[in-house]
């Protein structure tokens, strides 16, 4: 089984969906630690309920991004995670963090990448007037939402949608997609060749 560190900045509904799938036996992994950059993040209460240790590491405590990321590396090292699962973690990770975990960091983004990367992805989709949007689970590289795509699923976008109504329609699809993608990762079924993810057997 894979040891997983979940990183989340906010409410943690994706984290909860993954926890549920682990408890239901559909993901061959265990959440060994939750890391958050916000002392008031909703995910903290959830992790306490699961009896999973929580590490709060706020950016403001460090003089540089590099020092911040090195502190996160050091803090999670005792848990020796096999995979890092970003679930609403709202910071761009740099090489200090990513290099030691190369191809072992997953993220979910609430748009069909490479469209609408960055913040307010659902709002960007509404403003663009696209008729279909969705979510993307991908490996993380040092670019902004640019790593190899693992899985995507779609939802319709309606003319009277707002950022919030689209986000609400998307959320359950995110949960389903992340569970499926993380299950494949934990079963060692994902292989990256030239930036393309192949699903084995
Ligand atoms: C989700 O919609 C996730 O896709 C998004 O934040 C939300 C977190 O919700 N992530 C990003 O926008 C990453 N740039 P949650 O805390 O309930 O899982």
From TrEMBL:
Domain Formyl transferase N-terminal, residue spans: 2-182
Origin superkingdom: Bacteria
UniProt-listed Gene3D superfamilies: Formyl transferase, N-terminal domain (3.40.50.170)
Pfam families hit by this protein: Formyl_trans_N
Catalytic activity line of the entry: N(1)-(5-phospho-beta-D-ribosyl)glycinamide + (6R)-10-formyltetrahydrofolate = N(2)-formyl-N(1)-(5-phospho-beta-D-ribosyl)glycinamide + (6S)-5,6,7,8-tetrahydrofolate + H(+)
Sites where the protein binds N(1)-(5-phospho-beta-D-ribosyl)glycinamide: 12-14
Residue ranges that the Swiss-Prot or TrEMBL entry lists as coiled coil: none
Enzyme Commission (EC) number: 2.1.2.2
Pathway: Purine metabolism; IMP biosynthesis via de novo pathway; N(2)-formyl-N(1)-(5-phospho-D-ribosyl)glycinamide from N(1)-(5-phospho-D-ribosyl)glycinamide (10-formyl THF route): step 1/1
GO molecular function: phosphoribosylglycinamide formyltransferase activity
Residue sites binding (6R)-10-formyltetrahydrofolate per the record: 65, 90-93, 107
Site features described as Raises pKa of active site His, chain residue numbers: 145
Keyword Transferase in annotation: yes
Keywords: Purine biosynthesis, Transferase
Active site: 109 (proton donor)
Family label: Belongs to the GART family.
Function: Catalyzes the transfer of a formyl group from 10-formyltetrahydrofolate to 5-phospho-ribosyl-glycinamide (GAR), producing 5-phospho-ribosyl-N-formylglycinamide (FGAR) and tetrahydrofolate.
NCBIfam families documented for this protein: PurN
Protein name (database record): Phosphoribosylglycinamide formyltransferase
């Amino acid at each position: 089984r894979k040891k997983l560190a979940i990183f989340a900045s906010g409410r943690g509904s994706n984290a909860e969906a993954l926890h549920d799938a682990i408890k239901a036996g559909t993901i061959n992994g265990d959440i060994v630690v939750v890391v958050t950059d916000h002392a008031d993040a909703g995910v903290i209460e959830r992790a306490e309920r699961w009896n999973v240790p929580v590490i709060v590491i706020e950016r403001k405590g460090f003089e540089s991004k590099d020092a911040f990321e090195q502190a996160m590396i050091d803090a999670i090292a005792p848990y020796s995670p096999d995979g890092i699962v970003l679930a609403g973690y709202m910071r761009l990770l740099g090489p200090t963090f990513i290099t030691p975990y190369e191809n072992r960091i997953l993220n979910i983004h609430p748009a069909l990448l490479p469209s609408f990367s960055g913040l307010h992805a659902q709002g960007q989709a509404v403003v663009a007037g696209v008729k279909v949007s969705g979510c993307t689970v991908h490996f993380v590289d040092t670019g902004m939402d640019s790593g190899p795509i693992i899985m995507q699923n779609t939802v319709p976008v309606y003319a009277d949608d707002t950022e919030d109504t689209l986000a609400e329609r998307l959320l359950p699809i995110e949960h389903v997609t992340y569970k499926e993608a993380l299950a494949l990762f934990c079963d060692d079924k994902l292989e990256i060749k030239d930036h393309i993810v192949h699903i084995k057997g």
